[in-house]
Amino acid sequence: MNGWTGVTLRINLSTGDIKKEATNLKDAKLFIGARGLASKILYDEIDAKIDPLSPANKLIFAPGPLSGTMAPSMGRYDVVCKAPLTNLIAGSNSGGSFGPEVKFAGYDMIIIEGAAKKPSYIWIKDDKVEIRDASAVWGKNVPDTTDALRAETDEDAKVACIGPAGEKKVLFASIMNEMGRAAGRSGVGAVMGSKLLKAVVVVGTNPIKIADPEAFEKAVMTARKKITEHPVGGTGLRMYGTNVLINILNSVGSLPTRNFHDGYFPEADKTGGETLTAKYVTRPRGCFSCVISCGRATKVTNPKYASEGEGPEYETAWGFGADCGIDDMDAIIKANYICNDLGIDTITMGSTIACAMDLYENGYITTKDTGGMAIPFGSAEMMVKMVEMTGNREGFGDQLAEGSYRLASRYGHPEFSMTAKKQEMAAYDPRGVQGIGLNFATNNRGGCHVRGYTISPEVLGVPFKVDQHATEGKPELVITFQNLTAALDSTGACLFTTFGIGADDLAALMSAVTGIPYSVEDFMKAGERIWNLERLFDLKSGITAKDDSLPERMLKDPIMTGPSKGEVNHLDKMLPEYYKLRGWDTKGIPTQEKLTDLTLA
Amino acid sequence: MDIKYFATLRDITKKKEETLPFHGETLEELLQSLCTKYGKEFQKWVSCEDGGYGSLSVFLINGLDYRSLNGLKTQLKEGDLISIFPPIAGGCPCENARSDCHVSEE
Fold first, then answer.
1. pLDDT tens digits for range B45-71
2. A145 and A28 both lie in a single domain
3. What is the value of pTM for the model shown?
4. What is the ipTM of this complex?
5. Residues of A in contact with B48 (CB under 8 A)
């Protein structure tokens, strides 16, 4: 096969069975790979109502057909399973080099089933696959685990592993690869921990076959040029990283502040990309085949928090910053490093701490509950401490480890949790930006920004400008972005390539690599198909149209200060049209006609 | 008027913000005077090759995008806060701009 390797690896940790199966080409054509293809496998093979932390869940590591080729900035992979945080389908996307290495070893997917009886890791070298004892590294943090397992296998091995947070089943534990790259959201790390699987270690030496090398080279050079000539992908992200967004979102009054009470944080600049570049960045970092290099290698010299590592990204600097009312950048960066070391999603972590601070300030949580810690908004030291405690499930951290929805519910006030379908929203205030609010409310994995990133047109003006405060045209816009991203994710491409290329460039790359002609229509239809499939899984898991919503605060409490003062989100004006344009009924269920059209019936 | 600079513009102007006296100018006129003041490096980030302003950067007036006001012809007022973001932080590059985004034609 071209692009795809044609082999899917299936490992059962309960029985020790290791099987190599033929990748289903029919499904690969329809669902592309990575997110799409893995979601199809999960949908077909598990009952959507199972306990995500039971051995019945499956954990799928899934690169795409473009991963490992010279397609620029297209070496990503997804981790797909049922999510512990939300009970929805999880698809966590990560960069680095792990995805391409899986392809080089010869596999389109690694499907992990059952659960081991003792801590284990999987060691893959091309067609040699072993389940090995991980008791020597169980309990170790991510960097130490990575180093120890490379020493035990191959110094060039790529390692995807969990830290103590995944082992202890923190509901938003991440899977880390190359130490600083995260399959972050929804608790995929906890699923790995529930299987007593510490790591997947891979070395691969095979090339990936390209159907039409000449056409591929042409498509690669075109894409490369478009990405590097675009100011955002070509210059901005390398110079300032994603954190450049802090000042933009704040300047339009849509930077959620103090657990989304407000949308404007006067001290925001202290936590932004300009400050990060000026004081902390040692050099940019890029993933496999990347021409952008948005990653930040950083260092904190303040003795109180002295350390070095990768990041923080925008959502992280926001989560530990404005959302907690904190402007201490040293503390924010330290919190990010702890999340990387212990394997924790930074967005849910920041938002959960912000929720705890909010409950504390309103008297619903007291120092009795926190073990003596005073945790008002702005308490930077306590914030850092809480991250450490959460990753180890110590003291109050054990409660934080459940995420903000369960935390706030425990204290009788679920309305303090800034979540959609139990996953925390990211760093964009839906009251100030209408379309991203609709995306949060309808997203298949809950409060997710990346899978429908309408911030691009609504705030940045890329590829064109729409009014952030308007509701007209937003349902169509959100649907287009959701569909396109689903298809893009499934190829192995990085979302940041879209600051330069579009569906036509991706279709051209896919056609040249696989030898299967993909038109723009085919590509977008695949995206729509994948979106609807995920929706079907979520409906089976038990959600209804009632869950396509935002926290009351977003609908009823206006932003208090700044340029978007007085705004709320008008979801009721957008949701009915969203269902209609998607070809769903008024209950948000895809119609038979729509499913037949998408070959899902 | 208060002018705030972000990203590369801070390196070029050597400032995060400055206060300028208001002389009745429109946004376009303000940009022209800033390009004169800070030279070619500054101009590169805020104007198009064909001479029009705006298609590259994001300009906010009191937090509102200029394209939802009167575009480049927006009349400024005493006390306005103008935030200028070069396209590395957002904004629409000339070649890829859709025709209804290309404000220099207005």
1. 887 555 555 566 889 999 999 989 999
2. yes
3. 0.96
4. 0.90
5. none
